[in-house]
Amino acid sequence: KQEVTQIPAALSVPEGENLVLNCSFTDSAIYNLQWFRQDPGKGLTSLLLIQSSQREQTSGRLNASLDKSSGRSTLYIAASQPGDSATYLCAGGTSYGKLTFGQGTILTVHP
Amino acid sequence: AAGVIQSPRHLIKEKRETATLKCYPIPRHDTVYWYQQGPGQDPQFLISFYEKMQSDKGSIPDRFSAQQFSDYHSELNMSSLELGDSALYFCASSFVHSTDTQYFGPGTRLTVL
């Protein structure tokens, strides 16, 4: 059974700082890994999808990496902004598409 | 761009009542997933459909059933509601089964009193 863990549970940084969110998973037979953003009481917005054959994906100020052998993924956010404040969730996907989520990292970027 | 549509957005029911949640995937998406997110919890996978057939099943109670229709919309039927069923229910859709990004709808907030 896939288990996904995210560290840290919460992070508070000043605006402009670069930061890294960590995600670890127990089953290396992961099919893909997806990073999401969730604002309070809202839905999930997909940020990046990394297939199991890929090492990283980039979108704007976001860069996600995947290391299947160590069971880890990281989300790097460059030049953080107050608008980046949200909960960030990583999720491991199976060959049938089922996503197993981590508990999330609550990010606060203060001006 | 069109997004996943869920209805209703909010639903209040009494214990032992039934509820039906609807999901309309992004046009041309053939796969639908349902997730349940309890207060302060991460989303938990319930069930998925690909081309109108159930493709995977998670921790979905026997009191719940779901199906995908010919127009690819999906409905989650919940019976004998319990207080613990109060949660946000998300539907997600994808274009290519299992390998594509899952796009989530805004969710239906179910409150059971």
Largest sheet of chain A: 6 strands, mixed
> Using only CA atoms, what is the Rg of chain A?
13 Å
Radius of gyration of chain B, in Å, reads 13 Å
The oligomerization state is heterodimer
Could you estimate the helical fraction of the residues of chain A in percent? under 10%
Strand fraction of chain B equals over 45%
Q: What is the helical fraction of chain B, as a range of percent?
A: under 10%
The greatest interface here is:
A-B, 26 and 28 residues
Order of SSEs of chain B: EEEEEEEEEEE
Task: Please give a structural write-up.
The complex is a heterodimer of chains A (111) and B (113). Helix content of chain A is 0%, strand content 58%. Chain A is built from no helices and 11 strands. Chain A starts with a strand and ends with a strand. Chain B has strands spanning 5-7, 10-13, 19-24, 31-37, 44-50, 53-57, 64-68, 74-78, 87-94, 103-104, 108-112. In chain B, strands 2, 4, 5, 6, 9, 10 and 11 form a 7-stranded mixed sheet that branches. The chains are: A mainly beta (111), B mainly beta (113). At the A-B interface, strand 4, strand 5, strand 9 and strand 10 of A face strand 4, strand 5, strand 9 and strand 10 of B.
What's this, in brief?
The complex is a heterodimer of chains A (111) and B (113). Chain A is mainly β and 111 residues long.
Main attributes of the structure:
heterodimer; A: 111 residues; mainly beta; 6-stranded mixed β-sheet; 5-stranded antiparallel β-sheet; 0% helix; B: 113 residues; 4-stranded antiparallel β-sheet
Topology:
The complex is a heterodimer of chains A (about 110) and B (about 110).
Chain A: E1 4-7, E2 10-14, E3 19-25, E4 32-38, E5 44-51, E6 56-59, E7 62-67, E8 72-77, E9 86-93, E10 99-101, E11 105-110
Parallel strand pairs in A: 2-11
Antiparallel strand pairs in A: 1-3, 3-8, 4-5, 4-9, 6-7, 7-8, 9-10, 9-11
Chain B: E1 5-7, E2 10-13, E3 19-24, E4 31-37, E5 44-50, E6 53-57, E7 64-68, E8 74-78, E9 87-94, E10 103-104, E11 108-112
Parallel strand pairs in B: 2-11
Antiparallel strand pairs in B: 1-3, 3-8, 4-5, 4-9, 5-6, 7-8, 9-10, 9-11
